[in-house]
């Protein structure tokens, strides 16, 4: 049955000649998933689309522990939300999840669920960031070791959250320095890259002594992660965050790119994330792509719509500043289409010197990407890949994977205590994605009804 499904889906991929045929995201690939998996997915996605659950998730978790006890509450979470969106707690559990994904031609994009929230009241110190560094290095090793599991090979990718290695307060201060009129050349990517390589103390006049010391320690941590990832042949996709942090994060990524994204090193080893819901994204993306090629660097991009829309608008209103986000969803879609066209053109012109992840749950965007790849002659398993969250958008992920495209599922892992708060924050940031899962619910319901009524071929349990 699986072979028949694979052949049917693969036959839908764009042929090298003749008319392009779009993939069908009609749930046909759900034949490859078990009934219990489909039932859990339907229930969990419906629950996550309920606004009170997302808004009050942390409070509800605490209430559940008090009422049911930690053991029963934990078992309930593992059977539902944790089981749907998380690979597991131990390397063995993660490996089992990845092996299962590999059987349906999907690849892992591991994510360590550690970050420092902006304006958090929790006090962190160098020891906390050093502990996070160790976790990131272990994630690099685990990402590499998963290549030996069954399933597709190719680029090994991993997500990197910079605010796990440097404070949000420093990032905000750096952003302020960068955005001042006549910004100091002290904060050039070249100078930061030199400080990373030399390990000598960096002095930036707009920072305090303590901030300069933390900056140097942060640069050292970032350098160690990329150095280890390069040695283990793992490419790092740096997450974008709030606009109050992103200029600083982009500066740090640019410094790392100077050192590690050269063709001599086999780059790009460090990719940046671009959020299409921001008004200036297309221009920044165009400028950064041109700068990378002028400098003789490979260029890696993860293209997303963005997850912080509500918070960005609230902050702009609170401070009386210009809203940095697109005015509506259609404007965001248009921005994504323009950015996607720009990057696919770059890939077609520069080949392996330009890599792109189309990180989207939007069927229209995926159709645009696959059509343009076919028109531009970009190979299915080349420098363009696709990304979706583990436990979501499987009707798109499975169809892409079975048709021969490179598809990654973003996979957090860790203990309940580490991952559940992380998942709740992600759900709060991705409300529109969760609310937009209605089509996936319908396809899941159709497949479950088909099985319960005994229609068609038998399916795995």
UniProtKB/TrEMBL annotation:
Presence of keyword Iron: no
Keyword vocabulary terms for this entry: FAD, Flavoprotein, Oxidoreductase, Proline metabolism
Domain of life: Eukaryota
GO cellular component: mitochondrion
Domain Proline dehydrogenase: residue ranges: 169-434
Cross-referenced InterPro entries: FAD-linked_oxidoreductase-like, Proline_DH_dom, Proline_oxidase
Reaction catalyzed: trans-4-hydroxy-L-proline + a quinone = (3R,5S)-1-pyrroline-3-hydroxy-5-carboxylate + a quinol + H(+); L-proline + a quinone = (S)-1-pyrroline-5-carboxylate + a quinol + H(+)
GO molecular function: FAD binding; proline dehydrogenase activity
Enzyme Commission code(s) on record: 1.5.5.2
SUPFAM superfamilies named among the record's database cross-references: FAD-linked oxidoreductase
GO biological process: L-proline catabolic process to L-glutamate
Cofactor: FAD
Family per similarity comment: Belongs to the proline oxidase family.
Function: Converts proline to delta-1-pyrroline-5-carboxylate.
Name of the protein in its database record: Proline dehydrogenase
């Amino acid at each position: 049955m699986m072979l028949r499904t694979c052949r049917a889906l693969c036959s839908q991929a764009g042929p090298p000649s003749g008319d392009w045929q779009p993939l069908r995201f009609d749930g046909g690939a759900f034949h490859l998933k078990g009934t219990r998996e489909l039932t859990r997915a339907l229930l969990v996605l419906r629950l996550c689309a309920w606004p009170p659950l997302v808004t009050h998730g942390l409070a509800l978790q605490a209430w559940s522990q008090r009422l049911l006890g930690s053991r029963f509450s934990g078992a309930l979470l593992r059977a539902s939300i944790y089981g749907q969106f998380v690979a597991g707690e131990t390397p063995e559990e993660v490996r089992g999840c990845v092996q299962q994904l590999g059987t349906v031609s999907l690849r892992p994009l591991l994510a360590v669920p550690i970050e420092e929230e902006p304006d958090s009241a929790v006090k962190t110190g160098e020891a906390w960031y050093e502990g996070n560094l160790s976790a990131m290095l272990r994630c690099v090793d685990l990402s590499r070791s998963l290549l030996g599991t069954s399933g597709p090979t190719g680029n090994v990718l991993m997500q990197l959250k910079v605010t796990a290695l440097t404070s949000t307060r420093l990032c905000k201060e750096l952003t302020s320095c960068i955005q001042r009129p006549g910004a100091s050349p002290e904060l050039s990517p070249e100078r930061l890259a030199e400080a990373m390589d030399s390990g000598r103390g960096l002095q930036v006049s707009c920072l305090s002594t303590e901030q300069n010391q933390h900056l140097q320690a942060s640069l050292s941590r970032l350098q160690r992660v990329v150095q280890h990832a390069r040695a283990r042949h793992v490419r790092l996709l740096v997450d974008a965050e709030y606009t109050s942090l992103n200029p600083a994060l982009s500066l740090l990524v640019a410094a790392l790119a100077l050192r590690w994204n050269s063709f001599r090193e086999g780059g790009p080893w460090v990719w940046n994330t671009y959020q299409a819901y921001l008004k200036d994204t297309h221009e920044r993306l165009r400028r950064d792509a041109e700068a990378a090629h002028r400098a003789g660097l490979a260029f890696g991009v993860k293209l997303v719509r963005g997850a912080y829309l509500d918070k960005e608008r609230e902050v702009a209103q609170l401070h009386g500043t210009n809203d940095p986000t697109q005015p509506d969803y259609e404007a965001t879609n248009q921005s994504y289409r323009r950015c996607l066209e720009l990057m696919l053109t770059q890939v077609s012109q520069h080949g392996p010197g330009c890599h792109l992840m189309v990180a989207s749950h939007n069927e229209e965007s995926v159709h645009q990407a696959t059509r343009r790849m076919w028109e531009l002659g970009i190979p299915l398993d080349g420098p363009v890949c696709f990304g979706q969250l583990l436990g979501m958008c499987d009707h798109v992920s499975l169809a892409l994977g079975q048709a021969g495209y490179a598809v990654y599922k973003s996979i957090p892992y860790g203990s309940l205590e580490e991952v559940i708060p992380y998942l709740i924050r992600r759900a709060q940031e991705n409300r529109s994605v969760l609310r937009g899962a209605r089509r996936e619910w319908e396809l899941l319901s159709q497949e479950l009804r088909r099985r319960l009524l005994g229609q068609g071929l038998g399916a795995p349990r």
